[in-house]
Amino acid sequence: MTVVVNSRDDFTLENYRRVAIGGESVAIGPEARTTMAEGRANFLRLLESDRTQFIYGVTSSFGPRARLTIPPGEQRAHARAFGFRRGNWARGFGGGYLDERVVRGVVFARLANFVAGNSKARPVVAERIAAMLDGPLPPVPLDGEVGAGEVLPMAHVMHGLRRGGLEEGEANPLMNGSPVSAALAADTALQACHRLDHAEQIFALSVEAFGAPLDAYDDELDDLWGDEDEASALAALRRYLAGASPGGRPSAAVPASYQVLGRVLGQAHRAVTGVEDAARVSLRSVTDNPVYVPPDDGHPLGRAFSTGGFHNAMTYPALNALAAAWADLTLLAQRHVTALCAVAASAPPARAPRFAAGAATGLEPVLAALVEDARAAAMPTLLPAAVNDPQDDVSSPVFSAYRRQAWAAECFDGAQAVLAAGASQALLHAGRQPAPPLQDLLAAIRAIFPPLEASPPDPGARGGELAAALARWAVTGSGPFGTSR
Amino acid sequence: MTVVVNTGDDFTLANFLRVSYGGEPVRIGAVARRSMTAGAGHEPTVDSPGRETIRRARWAAPGADFGGGYLDAAVVRGILFARLASLVSGHAGVRPSVAERVAAALDGPMPRVPLDGQAGTGEALPLAQVLAGVQRDGLREGEVEALLGGAPCSAALTADAAIRARHRLQHAEGVCALSIEAFRAPLSAYDEALDDLWGDRHETAALRGLRRYLEGAGTAERRFHQAPVSYRIIPRVLGQVHRAVAAVEKAATVSLRSVTSDVVYVGDELGRPAGRAVRSGGYHNGMAYPALNALSAAWADLALVAERQVTALNTAETSGLPVNLVAPGAPGNGTYAYGWAASGYVEEARAAATPALLPGAVEDLHADVLSPAFGAYRRERRAAECLDGVLAILAIVSSQALFVTGRDPARPLLPLLSFVRSVFPPIDGTGERDLSADGGRLQQALGAAALSGQLAAQPRSARRRSGGRRTAAF
Questions:
Q1: Residue B15 pLDDT > 70, yes or no?
Q2: Which residues pair with A291 in a beta bridge?
Q3: Are residues B297 and A382, on separate chains, in Cβ contact within 8 Å?
Q4: Which homologous superfamily does the CATH classification assign to the domain defined by A186-277+313-476?
Q5: B52 and B167, same domain (yes or no)
Q6: d(CA B457, nearest CA chain A) in Å
Q7: What is the pTM of this model?
Q8: 3-state secondary structure at position A453
Q9: B positions 299-338 inside 8 Å of A (CB)
C-alpha cells in the first residue's frame, strides 16, 4: 500500500504508523503537487520583486552569519552549495542509532511543510524526499544531536537525498523546521498507548493475585473523582476484572498501592494523551524557517519570513511527563510485588509446590535497580544550558527527552515482567484463576515464564524474555496480550 | 461576603480565592445540609484497616511533622474550604454539624502547618495540623476518618499555584514583549499566520498575547535580519507555559470538587443504613503533583530563555545597542552584571524543576505509597520565585535599553514600562544606588502581582516623599 499525501490533514498518527512501522511508501498527491507548484511560482514572484529583501538562507547566509547578504547573482549557486554543505554538517556520533522506523517517520513528517506550499519548493523536491522511503535510510546517531532547531539530526536523515539542481529557497526546507520532534512524539505515542494497555492488564492480574477488594475500582468513583483520565483507568481495570469473584477479598490488609491504582494509572492516561496530542499537532504543523505564506489581500506576492517554528516546545515536556508516569508506575509495580510476596508468605499454599517459593519468582531483586533507573530517567530534559553562538542561543532537547522516555519505558517493561511473573506465581500458590478476561494474559505469561512449580527455569533469562516481549508488543500493538484502547 | 456551598459546583477556583485570600467565611447551604442528613449515620460496612486508629492518634497529638517553614495561612484556609467538598456531597457519611464545624474553623486563626515532613499515605498528616482548630467532641464513628481522609491538601495547593500561575504568565508575556521592543526584534516571528501554521491552541494564545502587547509597534528601526533564536522561539516557549498553566488549572478545578473520602457511601440506597460503602484510594491525588512538576519545568525553561534575552540585550555585538547599556557619559558597567545574576536564578529554577515523584519511602506494608504533593508544591513556588528574578532582570535591562536609545515601546507596553521604572528607574549614572535592593524589590513586586493580578509599584524609600502606590493592570 501507499500513503498518498495531499494536504496537512494527511499527516495523521495512523498514516505515520503505516509509513514508519508498516513500511508503506508515500506518494505526493495531485492536490499537493498543484498547491506546491502555485506556492513555488508565487514565491519566485516575491523573490524577483526584490532580491535584496531579507529572506533567511535565500538572500542571506545561514545561522550566525544571517546578517550577511548574498548578492542576487549568487543566490542560486548559494542554494546549490547549501545542500552539500548542510549534508556534510552531520556531526553527532555515538550513543547508538535511532531505530530505522523512526528515521522513516522523520522523512514522512518532513513532508508536512511541503504539501501546503509553505516550503517554497517545487513538487519534485517533495517527490525526492518521498522516494527516500523506498530505499535504505541512513543511520542517525543518538548522541550529539542537540542544537538550535533540528538541523543536526536532519543532516543525517537527508544524507541520501538527491540534491542536484536545487534552486533558491529549496535547500532550507530540507533541514529546517522540527520534523524530528514530530516523529519522536509520534513514535512514542504509538508505543505508549499499547504499553499502558498492557500495564492495565498486568496490574489487574496483580489485583486478582492479591485478592484485593474490587470497590477501589467501582464505577461510582468515575463521577465522584470527576476526572476523565482516572475514569478511563478505572474503566480499563473493571473491563479486565469483569466476572471476578467478589468473595474472599478482605479490605483490612489491602496496601495503598492497590487502592491508589486507578489514580496512578489515570495520570499515565493523562501523560499518554499529552504525547498523543503533541504528536498530532506536531505532525501537521508547518515549522519551516523561513516560512512562505501565500498571497492575501494585503500581500499580493505573499510573504517569506523568519520564525521560531524549528523549536518544538511541546514534545519534550510531553515526553518528560510520560517518563515520570512510567517511573511512578514502576514504583507501584515494585510495591505490588512486595505485597504479593508478603501475602503469599503468610498463607499456606493451595497445593504442595515442588519449590516453596510462595509468590517469589527469583526476579524480585532486580526491581530496586529498575525503580531507581526509571526515576533517574524521569529527570526532565530542560532547555539545554549550552549556547552554540550568540545567534543560536537556545537548543532543542528533544533527542534527550526521547531517550529518557525510552529508558523509563524499558525499566517499566522490566518491572511489568517481574510483576506479571509474580502475579502468575501467586495465583498458582493460592490455587486460583483470575477473572475470565485475564486468562489469556496469564497463559501468555506462563508460556514465557512458567510457574516455578512446573519447571525450574532460569528466571533471569525468562524474565528478560518477558520484558523483551512486552517492549516488542508495545511497538507492534500485537502479541498475545492484545489491545483494547 | 460569605461563600455558600451546596454542591460540588460551588468548589470553584473563584470561590477558593474568595475564601483563601479574600478571607470570606463559608456557610453550609440548605441543599448540602439535606444531602448530608440523607447520607449520614452509616456505620462502616467494611473492615477497618487500622488507619483510623492511626489517624485519631495523629489528630490527638499532631506535630510529628516539623521544619521547612509554614504554609501560608491563606492556603490553610484553602485546605479547609477544599475539605468541605467531600463532606457536603453527602457521600462522606457525616452529619451537617461536622461540616459546620469545619466551616466555623475559618472564622478563627489558622493553625501553623509545617512544610517539611508531609509525605505520608494520603494527607492525614497535614490535615491533622489543618484541623487542629476544629471541635472534635462527640464525633461519631467514621466522621474522624472522613475529616482526615481524602485529598483536600492537593486540591488547595494546586488551586493556589493555579491562581498565581495565570497572572505570572500574563506578566511574563508583557516583559518578553518589552524585551522584543528593546532589542528591536523583527515582528514576523509573532505573525498571526503562525496561529494556523503551527496549529496549537496554546501557542496561538501565546502569539496573541505577544501581539496584544506589540500592537502598533514601529517597524522602521527594527533589524533587517532575523533575531537570535531566543527571540524567535519565545511564542513556542510561552505556548508550553500556557499548556502547563492550563493543566494546573484543570487539576485544581477537578480536584477542588472531587469527592475523595477514603470511604464513600453510594448507590440508590443512599440515605439508608444499607447504603453501599466503597473504600478507595481517593486520598491519593494522582494529577496534582505531575501538573505542578510540569509547571516548574515550564518556569525553568522560560527563565533560561529570558536569561538568553538579557545576554543578547547586554551584548553590543549582538544587539547593536550601547555596550552594557551604559547611558551616554555615565560611569559604571550598566546592566552587565545583571546577566550574571540571572544565571544564578536560572540554575536555581532548573534545580527546582526536578520532579517530585512518588516517594521512595514506605511507612509500612500497608502504607506503601505516599503522596508527593507538598514537595511538588514547594518546588513550583521556588521555580516561580526564580523566574520572577529573571523576569525582573529582563525588565530592568529592557527598560535600560529603551532609555539609552531614547525610545518608547509599543503603546500597550507603556504601563508596564512605567511600573518597571517606578520600582527600578533607569541607571543614569547619577547618585548612589543599591542596585541589588532595587532588583530585589522588582522581583518581589512581580511575585506579589502574581497573586493580585496587579503590578503595584513598591515605593522606594527615596521616592516616598513624592508618591504612593502606582498600579498597572494587564
A1: yes
A2: A305
A3: yes
A4: Fumarase/aspartase (Central domain) (1.20.200.10)
A5: no
A6: 32
A7: 0.93
A8: coil
A9: 300-301, 304-305, 308, 311-312, 315, 317-318
* Residue of A393, A400, A404 to mutate for B, most B C-beta atoms under 10 A: A393
Question: In the structure, what pLDDT confidence band is assigned to residue A78 with cuts at 50, 70 and 90?
Answer: confident
Residue ranges of A 113-172 with Cβ closer than 8 A to chain B = 118, 148-149
Residue of B nearest to A263 (CA): B286
- Is the pLDDT at A356 greater than 80? The verdict is no
The answer to whether B147 and B102 are in contact (CB under 8 A) is: yes
Nearest CA in chain A to B121: A256
pLDDT at B44 over 60: no
CA distance B402 to B391: 16
In chain A, residues under CATH classification 1.10.275.10 are 2-176
d(CA A117, CA A291): 10
CB < 8 Å to A60, chain B: 225
Q: What b-and-e string marks burial along B140-163, b requiring 16 or more CB atoms within 10 Å of the CB?
A: eebbbbbbbbbbbbbbbbbbbbbb
H/E stretch holding A89? none
- The conformation of residue A71, written as its DSSP 8-state character, comes to P
Using the beta-carbon criterion (under 8 Å), do A267 and B193 form an inter-chain contact? no
SS3 state of residue A11:
coil
pLDDT digits (tens, 9 = 90+) for A388-429: 889 999 999 999 999 999 999 999 999 999 999 999 999 998
Residue A252 has what pLDDT? 74
Which comes out higher in pLDDT, residue B225 or B344?
B344
Residue A87, pLDDT > 70, answer no
Fold of A2-176: Fumarase C; Chain B, domain 1 (1.10.275)
Phi, psi of A20 (to 5 degrees): -75, -50
A120: left (phi over 0), alpha (psi -120 to 50) or beta: left
- All residues of chain B having their beta carbon less than 8 Å from the beta carbon of residue A345 are none
Whether the CB of B141 is below 8 Å from some CB of chain A: the reply is no
| DSSP string for A169-189 | TSSHHHH-S-HHHHHHHHHHH
3-state secondary structure of A291: strand
Tell me, yes or no, whether B224 lies in a domain: yes
- Say whether residue B297 is in contact with chain A using an 8 A CB cutoff: yes
Domain tally, chain B: 2
Tell me what the pLDDT averaged over chain A comes to: 91
- The amino acid occupying position B137 is D
Strands (E), A158-277: none
CB contact under 8 A, A260 and B284: yes
Say yes or no for a CB contact (<8 Å) between A255 and B191.
no
For residue A308, which residues of chain B lie inside 8 Å, CB to CB? 189, 229, 231-236
Tens digits of per-residue pLDDT, A146-190?
A: 889 999 999 999 988 887 888 999 988 999 999 999 999 999 999
**Longest CA–CA separation in chain A, Å:** 89
CA B164 to chain centre: 4
Task: Say whether both B295 and B364 belong to one domain.
Answer: yes
Give the residue from chain A lying closest to B311, CA to CA.
Answer: A390
Q: How confident is the model at residue B437 (pLDDT cuts 50, 70, 90)?
A: very high
- For residue B220, the model assigns a pLDDT of 80
Report the distance separating Cα A469 and Cα A86, nearest Å: 40
